Amino acid sequence: MSKIDLSIILVSYNQEKYIKEAIDSILMQNADFEYEIIFADDASTDNTTNIIKEYDKKIKHKQYLFSKENHGNTYNTWNAIINSKGEYFIVLEGDDYWIWKDKIKTEYHFLKNNPQYIGVSDLRCEVNKKGKIITHSPEWVKKDCDTNLNDFLNLKFFSCVETMYKNIYKEEKNNKKLKELFTGDRMICDIIQCIYTLNYNGEGLIRLLNKDGAVYRTITSGNNTNYNSTKKVTSIAYDHLEILNRIDTFYNYELNLKKLYGKFIFPIFAWGILSFNLSEYSKAKKIVHKKYLNYFRIHFLYYFGVYLKVLFNKILKTIKN
Question: What is the pTM of this model?
Answer without folding.
Answer: 0.88
